[in-house]
C-alpha cells in the first residue's frame, strides 16, 4: 500500500514525505493536511480492495 500511495501522490504532483506515509500506515493519527490526505488514500484503498464492498450510488457520494 505504501508504494501505491507514494505513486499516486507523485502522479498528482503532490508534495509529501515518505515518513508521513509510513506513519499513517502504521496507525498514527494525522497531524497535518498532508497526513490527512494520506489517511484518506489509505481508507479508499482499503475500501476498494475489500471484495465485500461494492461501489454504488449510495457510497460513492462524499458526505459532509
Keywords:
single chain, 64 residues, mainly alpha, 3 helices, 0% strand
Distance between the termini: 26 Å
- Compute the average pLDDT: 86
Approximately how much beta-strand content do the residues carry? under 5%
Structural class: mainly alpha
Give, in order, the helices and strands: HHH
- Using only C-alpha atoms, the radius of gyration works out to 13 Å
Identify low-pLDDT runs.
Answer: none
How many extended strands? 0
Tertiary shape: globular
Query: How does the major sheet shape up?
Result: none
Number of domains: 1
What does this structure look like?
Helix 2 (about 20-25) packs across helix 3. Helix content is about 55%, strand content about 0%. About 10% of the residues are buried. The chain is mainly α and about 60 residues long. The model has no long low-confidence stretch (mean pLDDT about 85).
Amino acid at each position: 500500500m505504501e508504494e501505491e500511495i507514494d505513486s499516486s501522490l507523485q502522479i498528482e504532483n503532490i508534495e509529501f514525505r515518505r515518513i508521513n506515509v509510513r506513519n499513517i500506515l502504521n496507525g498514527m493519527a494525522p497531524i497535518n493536511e498532508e497526513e490527512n490526505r494520506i489517511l484518506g488514500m489509505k481508507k479508499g484503498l482499503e475500501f476498494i480492495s475489500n471484495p465485500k464492498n461494492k461501489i454504488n450510488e449510495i457510497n460513492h457520494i462524499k458526505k459532509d
